[in-house]
From TrEMBL:
This is TonB-dependent receptor. It comes from Parasphingopyxis marina. Residues 1-24 form the signal peptide. Coiled coil: none annotated. InterPro entries: Beta-barrel_TonB, Beta-barrel_TonB_sf, Plug_dom, TonB-dep_rcpt-like. One of its GO terms (cellular component) is cell outer membrane. Pfam families: Plug, TonB_dep_Rec_b-barrel. GO terms for biological process: iron ion transport.
Length: 844
């Protein structure tokens, strides 16, 4: 760590310490104003507590705060919490419902079924196992809690970086309706509403629904020259919808029902059900560069066969070395399965006949506007996501409660993307995922010793199963990936935590979780175009002299592992892995005054391993990766100052991160593997001050230094003209070194007319790397984002009118992207441009 970074961390801790005497000087002051910073109750430790009493770095946001700051989904929380990076979309996922979540440098940037998230997303206490659909619409929530640091003891195995806990609003005991309608940029229409309906004494329900429609911000435009490309329907895909002429749109509707029973007795129950449906375009995709002349690029993996040495046999257009002009032609060899019947490769673009010319893939398809594309291929994203949950509570005594959370969830997702930004079929991806999960959690909660000792013990069971089918078309079918994979997981765990306030000035925390997990996987991925066999046939391997049919001798020579399945890359049969883990937590709390708490915590976190599910060459075994673990130390302070008018919280932390699971690009295949170890150090400060009814200011600062301390030999990427590389001392992806958020709120009374509310939200974030290899063109530069709104609310507060804008500086930065160098391009998704909105809300 550099001296300047150490100085920043020390200064941050100093800010927190300076606050202590400030409070002491104010102890004798008379009460001059009412409490502005009303306490927020959270369940970060599986029981209700004032957020200021929780010895964890946690940011909590109420529904009112979320709406005023324009935060409508989980990804938008990234600007509000320090050292948190939440992005809507991962490389080639095609959907903004997929969440890339990183907290304190730890997370996951993939949607594949084989990799678990590193940040747990919880909805009313129910863990959402997939990153697909994890970017939840924050519809009618009571609050959202962002817990930073490993939360393995109480939340589970895949909260190694932290957790986001979404708590929906409980129905009231009186009839109540709240709703709003919003219009704005790109023909936006959004309608939301929630109604509380009392049914009987102690029994009430709420119904909530929302609809959101918005055009995309990237336009598809026609390429002025005919391409003669074969139609996309000739290649396997999850669908063939190309009707939308924009990308990055929204078309979502969702509904939630909740039934609560509480008659004041010992038994309480809550039953919820939710359903959401998305049917929209792919996330916006812009081709940033093409890589036809890069060594190792544009299928240069086959350059030993298709290069200048074969110019006299198969003309390769204007390029030499296996570049893209040859690929548009080589795909014409024809598929072994009879699906691909492209024209002959011989004489293309070099003879006197212009009618057989094909359009090469190169930089001609890069437009001069990041919001336009020459793409004309698949363009859709469809997701159905639903679930049911029941929470039952029974008071065994005045001090002990037994709680059960039972849940079932299911999702069905199809998506199709044109990633090459051209009328050619050079890189098209589509996916089909089906998943279900069941979970049961039993908790025994209570207190003893006159309330000085709180405890939470529990048992957890989780099971999920499903499939993910990959379809990828490279270079007009030169490589046609057909990748169905089946996966299942079964997990059980036992956990417990005790918090003991042994004296007014001293408290201790001890907790642990034991986890056992088993995973099953079978991979069926294959290349339906049989490129490997064609290469062997072309270079004269005797066993592959004839490919109709493919002989078993040719299969063996090509390295394919399964007799009778010559195109299947994976070894047949179900692969099984088991994991066992013990994650402890120990903490101490010091209370110099009633409103100040110093805390120190040591904890461990854990995430299970799995298998790499994307291959483009046969292997004799299913490649796997191992678990990752963290050991974290944290020191912090939580303080409530000036008779509750100000809260100031700060933390410093250091984390040892081992077995890091990252997505590496190997040839044309993005694969998951263990990279090595890292050291992560950082600091955070959060402040909220409300000196009067008129003004409130929320602010936060995050600083972090996350770098590899060692990198496994197979994961080292040397620096090159396109990439910074992966090596000891290099930075981790998705982790900016500095972030700052300032959110002022001013409420101006205007007599009997009501009030005017002005809200601003400014976030500065330093640069970060969007991918593992640290591709220069994908690096996200430092950003300055400003959102602002003005609201008129009459004195009756029955309705309100808000005018606002997001990204008012029109900062355009890369949210996600991929360096598909071997496939011929570097592409990415840019952030949404500046937008305006107008919202009418009602409340009665």
């Amino acid at each position: 760590m550099t001296i300047s970074k150490i100085g920043l961390l020390s200064a941050t801790a100093g800010i927190a310490l300076i606050a202590v005497p400030a409070h002491a000087q104010d102890e004798d002051a008379t009460e001059q104003s009412t409490l502005r910073n009303a306490p927020i109750v959270v369940t970060a430790q599986r029981r209700e507590q004032n957020v200021q009493d929780v010895p964890i770095a946690v940011s909590a946001f109420t529904s009112e705060s979320l709406q005023e700051r324009g935060i409508s989904d989980v990804a938008q929380l990234s600007s509000a919490a320090p050292n948190v990076t939440l992005d809507a979309g991962t490389p080639f996922s095609g959907s903004s419902s997929v969440l890339s979540a990183y907290i304190r440098g730890i997370g996951a940037n993939d949607f594949a079924f084989n990799i678990d998230p590193g940040v747990g997303i919880y909805l009313d206490g129910v863990y959402l196992a997939r990153s697909v659909g994890a970017n939840q619409d924050l519809l009618d929530v009571e609050r959202v809690e962002v817990l930073r640091g490993p939360q393995g003891t109480l939340f589970g195995r895949n909260t190694i970086g932290g957790a986001v806990n979404i708590v929906t609003r409980a129905p009231g005991d009186e009839f109540h309706f709240v709703g709003d309608i919003t219009t704005g940029s790109f023909d936006r229409i959004q309608v939301r509403g929630s109604v509380d309906i009392p049914l009987s004494n102690g029994f009430a329900m709420s119904l909530t629904g929302g609809y959101h429609d918005r055009d995309g911000y990237l336009r598809r435009i026609p390429y002025p020259v005919a391409s003669n490309a074969i139609g996309i329907e000739n290649f396997l895909a999850a669908g063939y919808d190309t009707s939308d002429r924009t990308e990055g749109g929204d078309h979502v509707w969702n509904v939630r029902a909740r039934f609560d029973y509480d008659d004041g007795g010992r038994f309480r129950a809550s039953v919820t059900g939710d359903y959401s449906k998305i049917d929209t375009s792919q996330i916006a995709n812009t081709v940033i560069a093409t890589t036809p002349d890069i060594v190792g690029g544009a299928f240069d993996v086959f350059a030993g066969t298709y290069n200048c040495a074969i110019q006299g046999i198969i003309p390769v257009g204007t390029e030499c070395g296996g570049g893209p002009p040859s690929f548009a032609y080589l795909g014409g060899i024809g598929g072994l399965t009879g699906i691909y019947d492209n024209p002959s490769v011989f004489g293309v673009n070099v003879d006197a006949d212009p009618t057989n010319d094909l359009l090469p893939f190169d930089s001609r398809f890069i437009t001069d506007d990041i919001d336009t594309s020459y793409a004309n291929g698949n363009n859709f994203s469809r997701l159905e996501n639903f679930g049911f949950a029941g929470t039952l509570e029974f008071d065994l005594s005045d001090n002990v409660t037994l709680k059960s959370i039972t849940a079932y969830r299911e999702l069905h997702w199809t998506v199709g993307m044109d990633l090459d930004g051209s009328p050619l079929n050079f890189l098209h991806t589509s996916f089909d995922m089906n998943q279900w999960q069941f979970s049961e959690e039993l908790q025994l909660l209570g207190n003893a010793l006159d309330g000085d000792l709180d405890f939470a013990f529990g048992a957890y069971y989780f099971k999920e199963a499903g499939d993910l089918h990959d379809y990828v078309t490279f270079a007009e079918g030169l490589l046609q990936v057909d990748g169905p994979n089946d996966l299942s997981t079964e997990n059980y765990a036992f956990f417990g935590q005790v918090d003991w306030r042994v004296a007014d000035w001293l408290g201790f925390t001890v907790g642990a979780r034991y986890t056992h997990e088993s995973k099953d996987f079978e991979g069926f991925q294959s290349d339906n175009n049989g490129l490997t066999y064609k290469i062997l046939n072309f270079i004269g391997v005797p066993e592959c002299a004839s490919l109709t049919p493919i002989s078993d001798a040719c299969r063996i020579a090509a390295g394919f592992p399964n007799q009778g399945q010559p195109l299947r890359y994976y070894i047949a049969g179900t692969q099984t892995k088991t994991f066992d883990n013990f994650s402890p937590r120990v903490g101490i709390q010091l209370y110099p005054t009633e409103d100040i708490m110093f805390y120190g915590t040591w904890s461990r976190g854990y995430k299970t391993g799995g298998w790499t599910t994307r291959l483009s060459n046969p292997l004799p075994t299913a490649p796997d990766f191992n678990e990752e673990e963290v050991e974290s130390f944290e020191l912090g302070i939580k303080s409530t100052l000036f008779d509750g008018l100000m809260t100031l919280n700060a933390a410093i932390f250091t984390t040892e991160y081992t077995g890091i699971q990252l997505n590496f690009q190997q040839g044309v295949s993005p694969t998951i593997q263990n990279a090595g170890t890292a050291r992560i150090r950082g600091a955070e400060v959060e402040m909220s001050i409300a000196p009067s009814d008129v003004f409130r200011l929320d602010a936060s600062i995050g600083m972090i230094d996350a770098e590899y301390t060692s990198v496994l030999p197979g994961s080292v990427v040397a620096p090159n003209p396109l990439q910074g590389g992966v090596f000891a001392g290099g930075d981790l992806p998705k982790t900016p070194t500095f972030s700052l958020n300032i959110s002022p709120r001013v409420e101006l009374p205007i007599g009997d007319m009501g009030s005017i509310i002005l809200v601003g939200d400014f976030t500065h974030t330093s640069s970060l790397w969007n991918d593992t290899e640290r591709t220069f063109l994908l690096r996200r530069g430092g950003t300055n984002l400003l959102n602002a709104s003005v609201t008129y609310r009459p004195r009756s507060e029955r309705w309100s009118l808000t005018a606002g804008g997001t990204n008012l500086f029109d900062e355009r930065y890369l949210v996600t992207g991929q360096a598909q160098i071997a496939g011929g391009q570097i592409y990415g998704t840019y952030s949404r441009p500046a937008e305006w909105y107008l919202r009418l809300g009602v409340d009665f």
